[in-house]
Amino acid sequence: MNKELLELSVIDLAEKLRSKAVSPVEVTDNLLSYIEQSNKQTNAYISITAEGARKSAKQAEQDIMGGKYKGVFHGVPLALKDNIYFANEVTTMASKIHKDFVSKDDATVATKLRDAGVIFTGKLNMHEYAWGIDNNNPHFGAVHNPWNADRVPGGSSGGSGAAVASHSSYNTLGTDTAGSIRIPSAACGIVGLKPTHGRVSKFGVYPLAWTLDHVGPMSKTVADAAAMLEVIAGFDPRDPTCANVPVGSYLSALNGNVKGLRIGIIEDYFFKNVDSGIEKVIRDRLTDLEKQGATIVPLKVPALRHSEWAELAVSLTEAATIHHQDLIKRPDDFGGDIRFLFELGELFSGIDYLQAQQVRRALKQQFTATFKDVDVIIAPTLPCQVPNIGTDTVNINGKTLDFIDEGIRFTGPSNLTGLPAVTVPAGISDGMPVGLQIIGPAFEEARILNVAYAVENMKPLAGHQPVLKP
C-alpha cells in the first residue's frame, strides 16, 4: 500500500495522472486495498464495487495513455453517498425499506462525474434517509469518526466525512437539508460546501425535504471542492428547482486575498451558547483574517430567532409527506429515531407550515439586505463537539443539550435561505477539529471558497491528523 499516494489531494493526484507518473489502475488498486483495511474501523462504506472500479480504471488508463485526458477528475477513484442513484445498481438510502432499490437512471451528478472520468469505488454509509446527524445506523451500523473512533462523524453524510478524512475516498458528494454536508465535514476535519439552492441538480437523489435539499462536495482541500463544483454545477431541466445560472471557474478564483473583505458577524445568534474552545478557535481565525486586511462588521438578523422552529416545521413536514405511505404500511421497518421524527412531522398543521414559510421569506429578505453591507458572514459550523456513538446529548459549557437541536442550529439557516455556505477546518479543540462556516450571497460560491482558501492557508490544524490514517 502506497501511503503517500492515498494522502494526495485530488488536484495533486490529477497532476500525477495527467503526466502519467502514476496510472489510474495503480491508484485504484492502492485505494481498494486500503478500503478493505480502513472500512473495518470506520464503516464508511455500505458497498464496495471493486470489480467495476477496476474495469473503469483500465479504461481511464487507456484513454490517458492515448492522449484523451479529460481533466482534473479523470482516473480519480471516489465513492458517493448512498442516496445518490447509479443506474442499475442498488441504492439503499441506508434503509431497510429501500435495501434492494435499483434506479434505471444515474443521478445527474453521477453522470457528470462519470463523464469527467471518475472511477466509482462504492456507496457510502449515511444516517437512514438522511434524517439525522450521528450516523448511528440501525441497518448498516454506526460510522466511526477517524479522529476518535468512539465519536460520531456527524451526519447525515457521516460515511462521506469519514471516508474523505481517513483517505478511503479522494473526494465525495454529500447531501444537505439542515447541515448534512457541513456538520460531518466540520466533525471530520474536511471541507464541505453546500452550494446555492438550484446551483447543482438533485435529479436522481432521494429527497428528504424537497425545498431544503442540496448536493455538494466534501473534500480534503478547498481547491478539490472548487474543482468538483465546476464538474457538477449547472442547469438540469429534469430538476424543477435547478437554476439556469452560468457556472464560473471556481478553481481559478482561489487566490486567498481577503484585503478589503467585509466579514459580517451575528453575535446574538451565531456566537450564542457556543462551546468555549470552539468559540476561541473561530475568533482566532477572525483575528487572523483582520490581520490580512479584512474588516469585521456587526450585524443583526431578527428573523434568525425563529429559524430553528421554521427549519424543523418545513423539513419534518416535507419528510413526513415523502414517507407517509411507508409510515402507514410498514412503520416498524424504520429505525426508531427517524420513525419518531417522521411521525412528528405529521403533527404540523397547514398553518404551521405556511407560517414557517413566512419566517423563511423574512429570513431571505434580511440576509439579502445584510449583503449590501458585508461580503460574507462567518460563524462556527457547530456550537459543540460531536458526542460519543450512542449518545444523543452534548455538553456546551456545562449545559447538557440535545445533539440534533444544537447540531443544526448554525447550519439550518442556510438551507432555509438557500444561500451558499462552506465549512473549512479552522483549528483544534480538545483533540477534535473545529469547522468555520462562511456564508455568502446567492451564487457567490467563488467568493466563499476564496475566503475558505485563505483560512486553509493559515494551516490551522497545525499538523494534527486523524488517528485513523493510512
Automatic annotation (TrEMBL):
Gene3D superfamilies: Amidase signature (AS) domain. It comes from the Bacteria. Pfam families: Amidase. GO terms for molecular function: catalytic activity. The lineage of its organism: Bacteria, Pseudomonadati, Pseudomonadota, Betaproteobacteria, Burkholderiales. Residues 26-449 form the Amidase domain. SUPFAM superfamilies: Amidase signature (AS) enzymes (SSF75304). This is Amidase. Coiled coil: none annotated. InterPro entries: Amidase (IPR000120), Amidase_CS (IPR020556), Amidase_dom (IPR023631), AS_sf (IPR036928).
